[in-house]
Write a structure and sequence with these properties.
The structure holds 2 protein chains of 2 kinds.
Chain A lengths: L7 E2 L4 E6 L2 E6 L1 H7 L2 E5 L6 E2 L4 E7 L3 E5 L4 E6 L2 H4 L3 H4 L7 E5 L2 H5 L3 E2 H8 L1
Chain B lengths: L3 E2 L3 H6 L3 E5 L2 E6 L3 H10 L1 E5 L4 E6 L3 H8 L12 E7 L5 E9 L9 E5 L4 H12 L5 E4 L4 E7 L3 H7 L13 E6 L2 E6 L8 E7 L3 H9 L2 H4 L1 E3 L2 H10 L35 H8 L7 E8 L10 E4 L2 E12 L4 E9 L5 H8 L1 H4 L3 E6 L2 E7 L12
Parallel strand pairs in B: 1-3, 4-14
Antiparallel strand pairs in B: 2-3, 4-10, 5-8, 5-9, 6-7, 7-8, 10-13, 11-12, 12-13, 15-18, 15-20, 16-17, 16-19, 17-18, 19-20
Classes of the chains: A alpha+beta, B alpha+beta.
Chain lengths: 125, 386
């Protein structure tokens, strides 16, 4: 598993990588490890807009359902359809198994509250 | 209050188990992963630390009379060396706990019966039993802190037990038990479990816990036995259609309403708490107030405990347990349907298995209704060796 350069993480365990005004969002490896076997992921509709900290998806392990929060505000551009039939890909590699890509609406300002990966790991461990 | 640790706590930590609080204990929820642990138990063998379960000794000349007065089952039907699944009932016919009672006369010195009870109910059951024991020449002794308990489940369990010194021919049969030695350690070996697979539960003094645990796991190479946590214990018992106290069973629900009438005999003579209502329900002279139904989701959504259940768009109950089934690859669960407020026609249909099985219901998942279907119990055929 490769941790992509430049990712930022939220305290609710989402990662976001912004490139050319497109932000890719996923769940951190630490969070996935805590969840265990992922069996179901519910993703939003393309075109839906969400504010920072709003629930945009649900991930279910064998044990429980967990909500996933927007690390920054934006409009859904793309969802990772592969996860609908193969949710376990998130367990295999939390960083290549992205959940959604969004057009962020206020990235500069909102991302300042996010943590770099190493600081995030220090915080959760 | 701080959660208690079993004698195997350090073994779980060594195996990097994820530990969670459960019934007042800190227990492993998973080691390598719930799905793998579940499937390995179904395919070969799984080892569970169930030391949190409570053990109670019943001693005295009125032991049988006393037990007959507190459980719905007929305990007089089990001979020495046999066990029976029972419900401890209250005077409203509700279930205080579900337990297994063992007739240990001549097997454990001067102990007439012993019971294995739920960890989360030890603090209810013991005072409850002692209160009812007052009119009898009987002693109720809480032995929960003295014993550890392992469950070894799956089709390879019997071969592991054989390697540890008890030949296949000398092993107890289904719901029987013996006092024996495993690798020279004194144990009570019972052919019981909670997974729907053939297997054993092993009860012994705490000091032997690590030795027995590691010895059994040392058969991994030959018999593919893995440690299994509470996560897979839950998915395994649900597939087998087995109830869990606090979910399918409660103080406000009779065994009949929990669809466990099989464990309530019609012809037991002795009176017991709540017998009047329970027997009326059993004999269908009193209507059920609610009833437990097994269901499968017709959608990919997973039903979880406490989700609302709808019939014809009317809120009619709640999910008691729900999981994705690793063996069936379907999402399964139990729900309690409240008959109050339902049309009499619908209640009649629900009460008639030929009509209720196959009936569609809806489960509310994150504010949307999804289709599910009432099915027959168990979800998966049990593999007991009788």
């Amino acid at each position: 598993m490769n941790i992509p350069d430049g990712i930022l993480c939220s305290k609710t365990h989402e990662w976001v990588l912004e490139e050319n005004n497109l932000a890719t969002i996923g769940l951190t490896d630490w969070a996935v490890e805590q969840l265990g076997d992922v069996v179901f992921i519910e993703l939003p509709e393309i075109g839906a807009s969400f504010s920072k900290d709003e629930v945009f998806a649900t991930i279910e392990s064998v044990k429980a359902a967990s909500e996933i929060y927007m690390p920054v505000s934006g409009v859904i551009e793309e969802v990772n359809e592969e996860l609908i039939n193969s949710p376990e890909l998130v367990n295999d590699d939390a960083f290549s198994a992205w959940l959604v890509k969004i057009k962020p609406t206020n990235f500069q300002e909102e991302s300042s509250g996010l943590l770099e990966y190493n600081d995030y790991i220090d915080e959760v461990q | 209050m701080e959660d208690k640790k079993t004698a195997l706590y350090n073994e779980h930590i060594k195996l990097k188990a994820k530990m969670v609080p459960f019934g007042g204990w800190l227990m492993p929820v998973q080691y390598e992963g719930i799905i793998k642990e579940h499937l390995t138990t179904r395919e070969s063998a799984g080892l569970f630390d169930v030391s949190h379960m409570g053990e109670v000794y019943i001693k005295g000349k009125d032991s049988l009379k006393f037990l007959q007065s507190i459980v719905a089952q007929d305990v007089s039907t089990i001979s020495e060396g046999s066990a029976i699944y029972c419900h401890l009932t209250n005077d409203k016919g509700g279930v205080v706990d579900d337990l297994i009672i063992y007739n240990s006369k001549g097997i454990i010195d001067d102990v007439d019966y012993f019971a294995v009870i739920n960890a989360s109910r030890i603090n209810n059951d013991i005072p409850y039993m002692r209160e009812y024991a007052k009119g009898f020449d009987v002693e109720v002794i809480n032995k929960s802190d003295d014993f550890s308990m392992l469950a070894l489940q799956g089709k390879n369990a019997k071969f592991i037990i054989e390697k540890m010194g008890v030949d296949l021919l000398n092993q107890p049969k289904f719901f029987k038990f013996i006092k024996t030695k495993l690798d020279n350690i004194d144990v009570i070996l019972t052919r019981t479990g909670y997974t729907g697979e053939d297997g054993f539960e092993i009860i012994f003094e705490n000091k032997y816990a690590s030795v027995l645990w590691n010895k059994i796991l040392s058969y991994k190479k030959d018999y593919n036995v893995v440690p299994v946590g509470l996560g897979a214990r839950d998915t395994l018992r649900l597939e087998a259609g087995l109830p869990l106290y606090g979910h399918e069973l409660s103080e406000d629900t009779t065994p009949i309403e929990s669809s466990l009438g099989f464990f309530v005999p019609k012809d037991k003579k002795e009176n017991y708490c709540g017998k009047d209502l329970i027997m009326k329900q059993k004999l269908k002279t009193s209507p059920l107030r609610k009833k437990l139904f097994p269901f499968i989701m017709l959608d990919r959504q997973i039903a979880r405990a406490d989700y609302e259940v709808y019939i014809n768009n009317k809120k009619s109950g709640y999910v008691t347990s729900g999981v994705p089934s690793p063996t069936l690859q379907k999402n399964i669960g139990f729900c309690m349907i409240d008959f109050k407020g339902l049309e009499p026609d619908l209640v009649a249909k629900l009460n008639n298995p030929t009509e209720s099985i196959g009936m569609n219901i809806q489960i509310m998942v994150r504010n949307k209704l999804y289709d599910a279907q009432i099915v027959k119990k168990p979800f998966l055929k049990k593999n007991y060796e009788k």
